[in-house]
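Reproducibility note. Readers wishing to regenerate the assembly model reported in the main text can use the exact inputs given here. Chain order matters: entities are listed in the order in which they were concatenated for prediction.
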Amino acid sequence: MSKFKKSSSASQDIPTAALPDIIFMLLFFFMVTTVMREQEILVKQVLPKADQLSKIQKKSLVSHIYIGEPKNVGTYGAEPRIQTNDVFMEADELTLFVNQEKDKLSEAERDRITMALNIDSEVKMGIVSDVEQTLRKSNARKILYKSLKGVKN
Amino acid sequence: MARNKDRGTPEVSSGSMADIAFLLLIFFLVTTTIANDKGILMQLPPPPEPDQPIVEFQERNIFKILANSNDQLLVENEVYVKPMSELKEEIKAFILNFGNPDQSGIDTYNSLPSQMKARAKQSPESSDHPGKAVVSFKANRGTSYELYIDVLDAAQAAYNEIYAERVGITAQEYLELDKSKDVEKRMYEQGKAGIPKAISIAEPDK
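Running the prediction on these inputs yields the following structure tokens for the assembly.
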């Protein structure tokens, strides 16, 4: 009996001295992984679900195009629109955007530019195909249909 | 002199350090969006040239998928109501039919593992060999993007599963092969050899 009593006299506090260090470690992890959203997306974005997803190796080669119904229906109407950077565009104006994006890259990488199409799943194919035709003409032929990993219902 | 006065060591109290760190942590937790740059990769064909010769394909070498504006599918001239996983199996059977292989087709056939050889139906009404087989998908302007992605996903899955089975891994593992590593790149090439991913997406109808 006495043996047990002796051992219980040890302090039972968990040392919290290392707590700030642990928190700092977590903090640094999140600081490093955080990507601040640099543009406001003005269209609805419910990405479709798919299974056969590839990952992009080099993020600097990716340019984003958003297509969907505008969030602000009162101002922009309910028809699906194309958004690049912060503005709405028509499908045939995309050539300009592609050239701007290509200018940002070095000479050798220009042909490897990938256009990531962030398209809302409710959009009809008409506008999507218009965009694809313009991309074909402006020689940005690598495209990525952004989608989420998931099982279809 | 200093020894005499007991000033105590000046210390910044670090008790609230954890709280400050917590505050920052929560801020970054909330603002973090782990970027997901994932999706279905496709290569668009080059823009049409005015004097482009029209390439003739035999009917049997094309697996035709049509979608209308009501999101109904027509697969090989028949209305299709089965789930996408069935469509994937049909595409796989079509690609690996080996109805009338030429020399390169026979080479491809011989490189397949035996369980895949057994699945080749060799029907004269389906594709000659994987090098000639084309999966053609044509949507309507009113087709929903969701269905388009579903079909595209099924076609991609069919090819990826064939590639993966050839090198003895799952389709998921095949997609995640890192092409910058020699061993994995060789596996990737070996899976693809002789079976080009021929998914043709036609311009939608008006």
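We highlight two features of this model. The radius of gyration of chain A is 25 Å. The first strand of chain A starts at residue 49 and ends at 50.
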